[in-house]
Amino acid sequence: MYEFYQLLTIAGVFLYWLIIAGISIRVVAKRRSIGVSLAWLMIIYIVPLGGAFAYLLFGELNLGKKRAVRAELMFKPYGEWFKKLYEYRQYRPHVASLYGQSISAICEKQVGIPALADNHLTLCSETYEILANLIEDIEQAKETILLEFYIWHPGGRADDVAHALINSAERGVKVRLLLDAAGSRHFFKSPWPKLMKKSGIEVISALQVSPFRMFFRRLDLRLHRKIVVIDNEIAYTGSMNLVDPKYFNQDAGVGEWIDVMVRITGTSVPVLNSIHAWDWEVETNERFLPEQPKCLSHEDSEITDLVQVIPSGPGMREEVIHRVLLQSIYQASKSIVITTPYFVPSDNLHMALIIAAQRNVKVDLIVPDKNDSLMVEWASRAFFSELLEAGVNIHRFKGGLLHTKSVVIDSNHCLIGTVNWDMRSLWLNFEVTLAVDNLGFTQKLEQVQQDYLKNCDQLCAKQWEKRSLPSRAAERIFYLFSPLL
């Protein structure tokens, strides 16, 4: 009997070693960034079986077999739809700035979507203005209203949007609503889905979370896009979820969320419509590719607001937004202003900001003073010392949870959309951002950023170095896990 237990122990140790070795080899073989690989290896060895199990659930970009096959098959019809955009007069790469040309070149090669001119962009930086404009456009819709959001939280003016959608559906407008299952869980538990479906609205829960599904795809993949398209003529996108900030996340102790949205008319609206169609088809297997843009003649319209729509996420080309951010920083010659609620950059982005500051580019980073994610807040602080030493100006916004995701380069060009400066947005979530090559719009966004700066405290490098030893220890601990946040 003793020999049997001894043999059983040896077999158990060997099996344990085999599992850990196999998972470790798989981590290294994936050829991701060294930081991500080391973070996973640390978890696997510190929490042996639990770490290995966590890696199998969350360590790889597993969209699920059916979704992955569906996404792969969709590349051809959507690619052909995008290819037609190059035939229009609004594809005018020679009128773009050098910055716009380089960003468009990356996007054309990665996702096959060109930058298009003849858009009109309106920047909305007040929450109630955004919701009021959205309700007005919904009430005037004639044919279709398409929405997708990460979070829809009932209450306040968000309920007014719901009523407007129901009224539009009852007068014959086709309404499709796609919401992330985890982000909008309060919505799905409310009476609204039943009321909407009763009025004829199609309501779909994307990326549903359940213990059963975890064996077929990653549980933490999230639909983080915010898109509204009305009649294929008006679109909205930006950082704001469909929430009334006075009714949302009030117990987090971070204040009201501060956001911006862009209202768009023109040739880029059908492109955003196609991104919604992509997400809808991946989730439902139903195809609703939009009509191509209605392109005006030279006499009817001047070249305005050159816009590059940049989608990213599982099933699409990898790292496109990460590469666009890097290229934007590399090309900056005078100034970079960044607003982001979650700042846990990749090693490449971190170093690019340091180098930009060292070559005398004025770099301003605006982040919330208080964050609703404790892990992200501590991990962010781990990057501050090197940035401050290089000359980056770090500002902590005091007026609530600054949720705006924007980058302004040289007061001339900008990026605005749904993308946070963290690994989750850059590699995991379904995201969308706009690269805008237009001076007037960029100056308006820059003014919004300057208004944020008036409500900020700037970190002092000398004062920052006097922070307590426990704080430094917490920063280092969470820094180790930063590639996974």
Summarize, please.
The chain has 485 residues and is α/β, with parallel strands linked by helices. The chain has 18 helices and 17 strands. The strands form 3 sheets. The chain has an 8-stranded mixed beta sheet with strand order 9-16-15-14-10-11-12-17, with helices on both faces. A 7-stranded mixed beta sheet has the order 1-8-6-5-2-3-4, sandwiched between helices.
Describe the protein's architecture and organization:
The protein is of the alpha/beta class and 485 residues long. It has 18 helices and 17 strands. It has an eight-stranded mixed sheet, sandwiched between helices. Strands 1-8-6-5-2-3-4 form a seven-stranded mixed sheet, with helices on both faces. The chain has a two-stranded parallel sheet with strand order 7-13.
Based on CA atoms alone, the radius of gyration comes out at: 23 Å
User: How many distinct helices?
Assistant: 18
What low-confidence regions span 5 or more consecutive residues with pLDDT below 50? none
Structural class: alpha/beta
Reported for the largest beta sheet, the result is: 8 strands, mixed
Q: Strand order, main sheet: write it out.
A: 9-16-15-14-10-11-12-17
**For the residues shown, what is the average pLDDT?**
86
Helix content: 40-55%
Morphology call: globular
The share of residues in extended strands comes to 15-25%
Number of strands: 17
Give the end-to-end Cα distance, rounded to a whole number of Å: 48 Å
